[in-house]
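Can you please make up a protein's amino acid sequence together with its fold in token form to help me picture the idea?
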Amino acid sequence: MVFGSLVRTGFLELDDPLYITQNPLVTGGLGWAGVKAAFSSFHAGYWIPVTWTVLAAEYSAFGPSPSGYHAVSIALHAANTLLVYAFLARATGKRSGAAAAALLFAVHPLAVEPVAWACSQKDLLFTVFFLSGMTAYLAYGAKPSAGRYGAVTVLFALSLAAKPMAVTFPAALLLLDHWPLGRLSRRSLGRLLVEKIPWIVMAAAVSVATVFAHRAFGALPAGPGLGERLVNAIFSAGWYAVSTVLPYRLAVFYPYPAAGIAWYKPALAGGCLIATALVFFRMKTKPFLAVGLLFFLVTLLPASGILQAGAQAMADRFAYLPRLGLILILVYGGSLALARLRITQAQAAVFVAVAIAGYGVLCKIQTGFWQDRITLYTHALSVTQDNYIAENRLGRAFQEKGDLDAAIARYRKAAAIAPSYAAARNNIAGIYMARGMFGEAQGELSDFIRKYPEKAGPEIYNNLGAAAGNGGDAESAVRWFQKAAEAYPDNFSVHVNLGNAYFMNHEMEKAKAEYEKARAIEPDNLMIKKRLDVFTGKGFRKGQSPY
């Protein structure tokens, strides 16, 4: 089985803790209170209650063991494969072509990331409901009824609640009105748009909510300007298209090039896409070609990076659903080309089988890179340039294995590529502290704050305070923790650390005040309850440290 080995892989520290192992909406398990919390709150910059509820059910079943989550991801991908077949078989009436497209969808290397990365279950889940909704819409388009309209609406709502990338669903349905339903014309356009108003309103509401949630979470960084993001969006679309045909040099993270994208790359990609579109639109007898291309571009739009969320320039998981449009072109367009060449059905079947087997082999190779973090990030560095995220993450993997020399070497490479990247400098200081070099740690972090004060997050101030305190400079420790609390008043760990510093300085009232602030942020945190028990005499003798 192509994906079978993934059940033996662990969680990835890149977002898996945020989404699963340290997410209270998940670790509370499946229950009514958890479902209510999932539907009434934002987490990690998202409102995705269906995803949180499914992950909570998995946590109830598997706990923190990653194997169960990977098995569910494989099952969801298998379900999407069947849904691709069902949708295309109904849309085209050609089961053999639908089977070929579904197999290509299943074993394509671009599918590896969303299946292998546990936190990417949202991509798999929203696709389940998106494909189900499109298939239901084919039935509605053929014979409209209130019940069928309601079924499409429910499936769309579930897709939106799994991942906001589903906002393009109404536009995808309009494409289906053109082909295969044949409902779209100049006369019917207004009626078809009115028909979709409820869905457009749903998509708009989720889009606005997601932007606000991303901004509140800090997932809309002040990174590349609009012009550069537009250039990258065009280049990325071309890259996804090429990678669908020739999947090569795939990585877990693609950084923005340090020197920017060479002008000819997006120009070439955009020119090829425009030329292809013009050819397809002129082929009025083959409307599926234009629909396939437009489906790819439209469904990719929310993840194009025009509205930047995160530090990546592009990501394999973003193409999980959009590549279906290109697969449609490859399989059904390819069958037409083979027919013109007078290739027999038997010969065509052999050609398709060999092609799918080839993609399957590449897919199996790609899953091998996910066997552990060192292999994953080493591979990413071998196929990308200036990948400071991969350098930093590889350093973390080495550090957890106890190889501090290899770790700090990677952190320094990351800092050299991106001098304002706070995580690398913070990790360098962490190595210094692990070696008892507290002065060097303070120097590393103080230098970063002096050069890039706008990039200094709570971790920088926290570690600077810790380095000062461990180095015997209690006053400096308090001062740095105070600055962290002023800059990040809603950060739990900042108040805990400031309270600890006050406690060790015997400033008990101030310590208690900081612990109370921390409890207000996380009322159910057991550690902070233990800290506050010191002041009530519960569990500790008077004057005894809780540490």
Q: What stands out?
A: The chain has 27 helices and two strands. The first helix runs from residue 16 to 21. Confidence is low (pLDDT under 50) at residues 539-547. The radius of gyration is 26 Å.
